Amino acid sequence: MKNQFEGRLAVVTGGSSGIGLALCEALLQRGARVLTMSRGLEALRGLQHSYPAQLFCHAGDVTCAADLASLGRHAAELGPVDYLVPNAGIAELADSLDLAAFDRQWAVNGAGALNTLAALRGELASQSSVVFIGTFLTRSTFPGLAAYIASKAALAAHARTLAVEFAPLGVRINLVSPGPTATAIWGSLGLSDEQLEAVADTVTARLLPGYFLDAAAVANVIVFQLSQGARGVYGQDWVVDHGYGLS
Description:
This protein is of the alpha/beta class. It contains 8 helices and 7 strands.
């Protein structure tokens, strides 16, 4: 039976690290063509070497309208777009009443994701799938990350209505919300090694397997959400958190 991803086009932002990089690799392994946009492309060289005919790299920032327009033109040359994952995201520790921190994170996590869809909507195939990236923390709390959580929660609320609006066009829209995942984003929070270790110990105590997720585990759920196996799923938020929310 033919692989459903073979030859189809996926667009992934933030594909140079963490879950985005793992997702690009998972899609490439399944035969998809992948167009990925990141601010830096150095980390993609290994995949580019392994999949020279399938991987298309595009330098750009999701907060820049010109970069998104350029991505749209690149996708038009390769399209139509069967799968879209606006994955680019940032996290920043800040005072919960620091609204400038919310603005910075919303610009990437929320507006950046929505503007990515806006830039690509005209290139989407008649039967396509979009997966936004949320966070397990919208169901919990984490001191210092209120702005980050709020940016993701607002995106999730927006995506539910988008799912209804895009369904008549043959486009499925959903979310996948990763839990504690071993990626470089933890190092961007500005915590000392001792603080990071203490946070890791606290979080790990709530994870049923007793360890953080790896990026590939989250990527595999996103791949399934993109696939025809999830063709009956609309406007849902799948939480992949190793059971964090159960304790």
